[in-house]
Structure formats: C-alpha cells, structure tokens
Specification:
The protein is built from 17 helices and 79 strands. With about 1100 residues, the chain is mainly beta. Strand 74 and strand 75 form a beta hairpin. The strands form 22 sheets. Strands 37-36-41-42-44 form a five-stranded antiparallel sheet, with no helix packed on it.
C-alpha cells in the first residue's frame, strides 16, 4: 500500500501549497501522533467475492475516556489492530492501545460506539465484529473502562458477545426505565443471489444473525426483538442504524438502513416497550442500497429530518461508467413483492410533523455523491445551520460496467475458472480502483444545500466511517475520517472565532444514563429555534462527541431549554454565547409533559364520501413504446367536471376514465353523491377503449342543458386509430346522453387530446371549442397543434383553424388552455401551456387569433396546468401555472436549458427524442446511459464499444454533424411552478412563491377566499409515480395550501391547514356548497369542507 501512503503525503503537500484558504486543515498524522491506516490484503480464501463487505471499511469513535475534558479517538481496523489515541492537548495524541488493552482479538472489526454502559462515569468502548466467514471468531467486544486508562473486555458478561455479521450498535433507553438498551445491527449471512424475492422473508426471524433489540436488565442484555416488533430476518442487510425522536413525543424512534433489495425500516416507539414499523406509510421513496444515515433538524423547525446515503455518482463521467438502473419491469416486480419504492440515489426525508415525510434530496441538491457511506449533519461554520459531510469511496469498484462486461465474456470466464476452481487473485486484481472525493455541503437554509468547495474536506479517497467532535475545545467541530488503504484523515476546523458564535453543552444524566442520552436541547433566538438531540451514534459505523455544539452565527444571547429523558426540563434565559454550559438532570426546574394536548387550527375538514368511487388505471407501459422517455403520459387522469346534468338544480359530478373503463357520473341530491349505474351505461361502453384524457361540460346546442365532451388521448392506441377522435354527447335535459356522431377535431385529424375549452370566441351567442394536441403518439417531443372549432349554433362544429388561427399549428405538447378577456375588449383571448413551450397568449381579434409576443414566450417549461385568478385585487387576471418542479434530476435554466433532440437517428423510419442537459461548458449531454441509447440506436455500439469511450461524449460526438443539423431541437429553461402577476398590456411579472411548491410536479390548481380575508388563496396538487426508476417517482407533495397575505406574498402551511392527502392528485374542483373535490390517479375521490372559519382540533 506504499503508493497510497505517497498519495496521502501528496494530498498534504497540495493543501499546504494551495493558497486558497479552506475551513478545515488536514493534519499531518506524524506530527500529531497518529499512525493508523486500515490496510487490507485479499487472498484466494478471503476476498470481496467471498465476503461482500470486504471493502466497507472501519469506524471512528470520539469521546473523553479519562474525563480530562479532551476527547479521545478510537479507530477500528478490519485486518489489523484497532487503535485508541489519548488526546494530550494542543491537537496531539498518544497511542495507548496496548496499555489500554483495546486492540481487539477478533477477526474483523466494523462499527464502534463509546458509551458509559455501566454508569460509572467513564466511557466504555463497544466494538462490532464480522468477517470470519468460516470460523467463530467474530463475537462483538465490550471494553469496560477501569478508570485508569485500562479496559477489561466483558462482552460475554453483559451478554453482548453477538456472533452475527455485526455492523454497528446504538445504545439508548427505548423503554425509559432509566438504563441504556441497545439496537444491534447485523448483516445477513446469506449470499445475495440465493434469495427468491417472491418469498418475502422479512417476518421470519434469523436467531443468530438478524438485527436485535437488547433490553438492559440490571446490567445484562436480553433479546426482546420479537416482543418489541423488531425485524430480525435473513434479508436484513443492515449498514446503518440511527436513533432519534421523529414524531416529537420525546420517545426515541429507530431508522435502519438496509443494503441490496431489502427496504429500510422506520420503527416508531409506541411508549409501551414496543415499536411499530411504519416506513411504507410515512415514506414513499427510499434509497435502494442504503448505506448510512443521519437524523437531524436541517431547517430549524424543531423536527428531525433523515438523510440516507446511496451510490449515485455526482460526476458525469463516473455516472456513465459505473451506473446502471433497474428497468420498469424489475422495479414493478420488486414493488409487487413488498420491497417498496427504492431508487438509486441519496434521499433527504423532510419531516412533515404529521407522521409523513417528503423526500426532497433532488430539490436540496444532495441526491448524488457517489459510493457513499457515512452522512453527518453538523454546523461546520457555526452559522446556525447544520451542514452535511458524506464519506465516499470503494477500493475495488465492482460496479464498473466495463469490468462487468469483461468478466462476463465466455473466454475470460474460461481463463478464470479452471477445473471448477476460481482464480480469485486475478478476478480481484483487475477490478478498477478509483478514489472519489468526499462531499461536503453548506446548508443555505430554505432546504437547499450547496457544495462546500472550500471546506477542505472534499479529498479523493476511499473513506468510510467518520465522526465529528471539538478535539481542541475551541468551539467548532473537527472531523476524523477512517479510510481503506490510506492513512486516517484528521481535520482541524480553522474557523476564525470572531466569525460566528457558539454554545457547547455538557449534560449529566441521572442514575444509569450518565450522559443523558435521549435529551433534547433547544436554543431559542429572536428568529428561530435550533435543536439537537444527544445521540452520539451517527453516520456509518461511528459515534461522535457526546457534547452538543451549537453554532449561533452573530447571535450573542439566547434562551436555552433542555428536555431531559425522564420528564424533567431545564430552562435558562439570556445565556451568553461562546461558553460551555454544564447542566445536571437532577437540577431540572420544570416537569416536561410530553403528552400534553396541543390545539391546531385548520381551515379544511376532510369528510367521507358517500360514493365508493375508485379510479382504475389500465396496465399500459409507455416505456415499451418509446424507450428513451422518462415519464408516462398515459396516466394523467382522472379529470372531474361539475354541473346540473338532470335538471334538478343540484350540481352533479362527472369523472373521466382510463382506457378500458367507463366515465363515472355522481348524481347529487343536495346532501351527498351517488353513482349513477343505469343511465348512459350502454353509450359509455361503446367508447370504453378511449383514454379519457379530458372532459368538458358545456351547452353545445343551446338547449339550456349541459352536454358532454369526451376527449380521447394518451398513447395506448395506434396514431392511426379512429378511437383517437374526440366525441360529443348531447344531453336530453334529464341526464341521458346520446352520441352527436361528430368526430373531433375533424375527420382528417386523429390526435391525442391534452386540452379542451369552450368559449363564444366570435360573440355570436354560442360556445365554440379549442382542442389542444397533447402528444404525437410514438414521437414524444414533437409539437402538437391547436384546433379552433366553430359552433353553427346547433351543436355542429367546423374546424376553422387555418383561417382563424393558423399559428395554432405545431405550437407544442399542449397540456392545458384557458379563455379569458385579458384586454377588456369583450373578446375572449386564449392562453395555452404545455411541454417544451412558453406560455402562449393569443389575442382574439373579432374571432381570429394572433400570438402576442411578451416575456412569457421565453418561459419554456414542462407546464401541466394553468389557473386564472385575480390574486391582488387589481381587477386584472393573473396566471398560476403548474410545472414539473425542482425536486428532480432534470434541471433547466435560461443559461443552461434542457434540450430534446428529435430525429430518425438510426434511419429506421421511426424518430427518437433524446433528452439532454446543457453543461457549464456549453455542451449537451444525454441523460440516457450508453446501453439505453444502444438499445434504441444499435449503430452506436460500433462507435462506442465500451463505457469508457462513451463517458464524456456529448451530442456532437455521439452523432455526426448532419444528424445534429437535421434534428429538431426543443428547449426547456424553467421547471418552476410559477405565479405571474398581470401588469397590464399583456405584460406579466413572475413573483417569488414558497419553495415547498417545487417539491413535486403540479397537475391541479384552484383558488378561493378560503379564510374570508378578502383575497384569493390557492390550493394545488400533483405527484407522478409512473416514471422510470432511474429518475425516481415524484411523491413529495401532499397537497398545497398557499395563504394569500396580500402584497403578492403567499405563505405555505405545513399540513395545509387540513388540506393534506396522499396520492397522485389530478384535479381539484370547488362546488357552490364550499366543498373541495380532489381526484387522484388509481385512488378514491376526497372531499373537503370549508366555510371560511377556523376549526380547532386536538393533537397529542
């Protein structure tokens, strides 16, 4: 490993010569007295093919073992001695491993925890062991501190000598009986390829190797996993366990990271000695190969959020050479068999404070950091926001696609496997080894993180366990990182003490929990409340300094509240910054009532629907028709419309259907709704094979009743099929419909419809129609056309687009449109939105439409919905436009737009649309991986014979100049859902709106003065689940309520003041009875009542 020692010293030389100041300084290990490197050597009998966790690395523990006020350092090694270093001050250490007798005697050490297990006032050391695949030399070790810098190994005495493939242990008092219990995280014995995924073995206990919850009974630990509802099965591939209070009931909950196919676990403490595993209810998206996690309050709102690491590279070249994604069929197979929605990326679960989380990793910019292990939230610069560090790297990268292709070659297999014996030496030696940078992110507030380029931490390495602590007691947090085949990184935080202020806490607990594990500390400033929990086990296989360190920014005086584990509370006011606060639980001056009743004000009251309507979706998979698209277009319903269908003066409801199902009519009696199963059944069955993309109720034939326009859309049927014609059904006045026998838009245009709107565009007393084309079937990206149908006064419609609106031709992938008189000339103008489109305004000149050129033309988005409302009471109509959002792998700005190139690249008569991002170098790179492009365009395999040749290929290298020049190119430069304020004369101003709106695509919008304050508030909904696994579902929205505060200021309310629901929201309708009806794909209708008054509800 001499080359990696040389590499380490080159790093030191680089950082010492680099003039750019960094926040952290990498220390010279020799100068500070630390000589440690977790060096690994494989053999024919023991290697990564025989022990899959061979390169997972070791852990770090920081804690004051001799109570001298200086935190000491323990490092685990996989094949050599573990090391204990005593902090002797001045950022120097002394190796006391042999004196202390803590080097460890077992085969392979992994995680380490410092904990005062016997409550004698001295930190003990618990080491997890693994790796012995043939023998019985992997029992965990417990080193009991003797108080004189020596330790006695006592794991068997405490019944903690577990024989599983242990990864880590987390000590906490789950039952609040006054002593510390432990969650022991194990990794399955069984090889990955031996499992049958259809036989979900999660409930079946593996007594020897599964996870365990161990209860402390008078100093000895007993397995209570089954009684406490803790999984401990053979499919548990535990790599991380994080403990903390996720629901603010002051009882600690548990989050477990599982590698490979098994999903993660979220255990909610039931406060009776048991847990409820509730992940699938609270989290929709999770990481696939979860490695490490941390739990912390990232937005200073008092609730813990959860970050989980995975393996998605942030570097484009790495992404193209080492990454592959599950296809749609494998994803559905895994989902069907109970392993939940898992995706290849880091995830950041934002706590919604109501037993749900929103996954916002893509919005926050932390979804990709390469082969990531530990994640640590801590305030690096003491500005009051918790920043993020991620340790990265794998010494032998088994995900390298060229390596995998090479060893799958039959001739190579023959040369490696001879006489039924595998040449592991050769097989392992040729695995690529590439150091990758650790990642640090600065917390900017507003749920957003930015790469901390001058942190000094982003060193290329093979890093694993990491821990933070104030090694030199100067009020900022230093960092230690354990590496494979490289010396340990020890970073000193060089923050100027004049830059920001801090507070540090040393807590002393009662009885058998001396470090007050489970305590909460709240720091209250004039602006916000900062929160930390005393939970030292964090990140990957590591434990941090138990002393809580708060950055305060420029704040000099704060109020402090400590909530102790066993019911006490300490409150101190006007505490000055830049000091260490020492507190005892025995001195608590208040009693904490963690079950007190809280009163919550809500505006929206969810009610039960009397009808049993449930939307059903057909099983069509868009990706089978077009391989290079990422989002399906065949599941954009159901849409809902209201109107009196049967002349009884009550508004009824009609709901669109998917292909293979009939539209549903809900008849109202003024009190509730009932499904009409009799009328129109025969008529609707005739058109059952249509995908009802849009519906419209309007009086087509001027007979004073509502007729029914049924649009055909989606991509499920052939573009030549007559089923693509839209249909108009005429009402007899009693709710009975008959086919008008018209085909829409006309006999020459079979289109997939995305929008239909009615208005009297020529002021002749009848309603005309605009029809918008959603998609060219089989040619995603190609622009559709709009159609203007003129009513003859009797419900017969004629296509007059060419004479009245020729510019409607090929304007985009139309998703919505709305008629509105924007210039008060008594003629309705038209606004059209869609994908790869600006927001198009067409002025109505006496029944003819011409485009208006304004600032909205260049707001090119993936627009889904437009809603019109006067938001500032100035008499002018403003635009609320639903877009894709920012919580996505897809990014687009005016400087670096997203582009789609459409061409018949392989000359087979069928075009392909290739979606690209524009890099800072100005070049366009495809999102598609090499094998995905080759699956569609076979000729590319010759040009790019391997992944290495493809890794930095932009569009001009992938295709020749003639192919590029012959392509139609469409752009997107704005993915934000937006509000545009009407300034008059067709000019609009974009205003700032709450960031939470951008967490998911928006498909439904409505408005009303819900709180009776004189201005219009907004409700929205969205989400999209039918997407390729490589980009991941969009599920972070639970409905949005934006309160209009006036002066173009809108406020988001977590929990929506009662407007809160799960699912893919597709339409929102408001009735005259102050009801809100919400439709969701593959789900029921939801009804909310509102009356402009607050309702008070109790929460606990």
């Amino acid at each position: 490993m001499k080359s990696y020692f040389c590499y380490f010293f080159l790093i030191l030389l680089f950082y010492s010569c680099n003039k750019t100041e960094t926040l952290f300084e990498l220390k010279n290990n020799k100068n500070i007295g630390v000589n440690f490197s977790n060096d690994l050597e494989f053999s024919e009998d023991f290697n990564v093919y025989l022990y899959r966790n061979f390169y997972n690395g070791g852990g770090v523990a920081l804690g004051d073992i001799n109570n001298d006020g200086l935190i000491d350092l323990y490092l685990t090694s996989n094949q050599q001695k573990n090391k204990l270093y005593l902090n002797i001050g001045d950022f120097k250490f002394k190796d006391i491993t042999d004196l202390a007798n803590v080097s460890g005697e077992k085969a392979w050490s992994t995680g380490v925890t410092m904990v005062d297990i016997n409550a004698d006032g001295f930190l003990d050391i618990y080491v997890c062991n693994s790796g012995d695949i043939v023998g019985d030399n992997k029992q965990n070790e417990l080193f009991i501190n003797n108080g004189n810098l020596t330790f006695t190994e006592s794991a068997e005495k405490y019944n903690l000598d577990d024989k599983g493939y242990s990864t880590h242990a987390n000590f906490f008092d789950y039952d609040k009986d006054g002593d510390l219990d432990v969650y022991l995280l194990n990794n399955s014995y069984q090889s990955i390829g031996s499992f049958n995924l259809t036989k979900n073995e999660r409930p079946k206990r593996d007594i020897l190797g599964g996870d365990k919850l161990m209860e402390n009974r008078n100093g000895k630990f007993f397995d209570v996993s089954q009684k406490a509802n803790i999984y401990g099965s053979v499919i548990g591939f535990g790599l991380g366990v994080t403990v903390g209070d996720v629901n603010n009931d002051d009882w600690e909950d548990i989050f477990v990271c599982n590698d490979f196919f098994e999903r993660d676990y979220l255990y909610i403490n039931q406060r009776d000695g048991t847990f409820k595993e509730d992940l699938t209810s609270q989290m929709k998206s999770i990481s696939a190969a979860s490695m490490g996690a941390d739990l912390a309050d990232i937005d200073n709102n008092g609730s813990n959020d959860i970050f989980v690491t995975e393996m998605l590279p942030s570097d484009y070249k790495r992404l193209k050479t080492v990454t592959t994604f599950e296809d749609w069929n494998k994803y559905q197979y895994v989902l069907k068999n109970g392993y939940h929605h898992q995706f290849t990326r880091n995830v950041l679960h934002l706590n919604n404070e109501n037993d749900t989380f929103s996954e916002i990793g893509r919005f926050s910019g932390v979804e990709a950091s390469d082969w990531s292990w530990g994640a640590l939230f801590f305030d690096m610069d003491n500005d009051g926001f918790k920043d993020l560090f991620i340790s990265n790297g794998i010494f032998k990268d088994l995900t390298n696609q060229d390596y995998l292709q090479y060893i799958s070659n039959k001739e190579v297999v023959k040369s490696i496997v001879q006489n039924n014996k595998v040449d592991y030496k050769r097989l392992v030696e040729i695995i690529p080894s590439e150091a990758v940078p650790n990642h640090s992110y600065r917390n900017l507030g507003g749920f957003q993180f930015k790469k901390f380029n001058n942190s000094g931490l982003n060193i290329e390495s093979f890093s694993n366990g990491s821990a933070y602590g104030d090694i030199d007691n100067d009020g900022d947090l230093d960092l230690v990182v354990n590496n494979v085949n490289m010396p340990v990184f020890i970073f000193e935080n060089k923050l100027n003490p004049k830059t920001n202020n801090y507070l540090k806490f040393e807590l002393e607990g009662n009885a058998l929990n001396k470090n007050a594990i489970g305590s909460k500390i709240l720091i209250k400033t004039d602006q916000e409340t900062l929160t930390q929990e005393i939970q030292p086990v964090r990140g990957f296989q590591s434990s941090v300094d138990v002393r809580a360190n708060f950055g305060l920014g420029s704040v000099k005086t704060v109020d402090v509240e400590v909530i102790w584990p066993y019911g006490g509370k300490t409150i101190i006011e006007n505490v000055k910054s830049n000091q260490i606060i020492k507190l005892k639980e025995s001195d608590a001056n208040f009693k904490n009532n963690n079950s007190e009743i809280k009163i919550e004000k809500i505006l929206f009251d969810k009610k039960e629907m009397t009808s049993n309507f449930l939307h059903k979706e057909n099983p069509f998979v868009d990706f089978d028709k077009e391989r290079l698209i990422y989002h399906m277009c065949s599941n954009e319903g159901p849409k809902i419309e209201k109107g009196d269908l049967n002349g009884d003066n009550f508004d009824d409801i009609i709901i669109s259907a998917s292909k293979g199902y009939d539209p549903t009519i809900l008849l109202s009696n003024g009190k509730n709704y009932k499904i009409d199963n009799k009328n129109n059944k025969e008529l609707f069955e005739k058109f059952r094979e249509l995908e009802n993309s849009e519906i419209l109720l309007f009086d087509a034939d001027n007979d004073k009743d509502l007729d029914f326009y049924l649009a055909s859309g989606g991509v499920e049927i052939s573009r030549y099929s007559e089923l693509l014609f839209d249909r108009l059904f005429l009402n007899d006045g009693n709710g009975n419909f008959s086919d008008s026998n018209q085909v829409m838009p006309d006999i020459d245009n079979k289109i997939s419809t995305g929008a239909v709107e009615a208005s009297d565009i020529d002021n002749d007393g009848d309603l005309d129609l605009f029809i918008g084309e959603r998609i060219k079937i089989g040619r995603y990206g190609m622009p559709g056309s709009g159609f203007l149908l003129i009513n003859d006064g009797n419900g017969k419609f004629i296509n007059e687009t060419s004479s009245r609106a020729p510019k409607f031709k090929e304007i985009g992938m139309i998703t919505d449109a709305s008629f509105i008189d924007l210039d008060n000339d008594n003629y309705k103008d038209l606004v059209i939105v869609g994908e790869y489109m600006g927001i198009k305004i067409f002025k109505n000149f006496n029944g003819k439409f011409k485009p208006i050129t304004n600032n909205l033309d260049n707001e090119k988005g993936w627009w889904n919905k437009i809603h019109l409302e006067d938001l500032n009471n100035d008499g002018k109509i403003d635009f609320i436009v639903g877009n894709h959002g920012l919580n996505s792998r897809f990014k687009a700005t005016k400087k670096n737009p997203l582009r789609l190139y459409f061409n018949d690249f392989d000359k087979n008569g069928f075009g392909e649309g290739i979606i690209c991002f524009n890099d800072k170098n100005g070049k366009d790179y495809p999102y598609a991986l090499r094998h995905d492009l080759i699956d569609q365009i076979k000729s590319l395999k010759k040009r790019f014979p391997d992944y290495e040749s493809f890794k930095d290929a932009d569009m001009t290298k992938i295709f020749d100049s003639n192919q590029i020049e012959g392509s139609r190119v469409f752009e997107v430069n704005n993915l934000e859902t937006s509000i545009f304020i009407n300034k008059g004369n067709f000019n609009f101003k974009k205003i700032s709106i709450p960031k939470e709106v951008q967490f998911s695509p928006i498909y439904a919008i409505n408005s009303n003065d819900f709180d009776n304050d004189g201005d219009k508030d907004i409700i929205m909904g969205g989400n999209l689940y039918t997407v390729k696994p490589e980009v991941g579902i969009y599920d972070a929205s639970y409905g949005i309520y934006l309160e209009n505060k006036g002066n173009e200021n809108f406020v988001f309310h977590k929990g929506g003041k009662g407007f809160f629901l799960k699912g893919e929201i597709r339409d929102i309708l408001i009735t005259d009875k102050k009801e809100i009806l919400v439709s969701r794909n593959k789900d029921s209708l939801t009804l909310f009542k509102f009356n402009g008054k607050w309702k008070f509800v109790k929460s606990f």
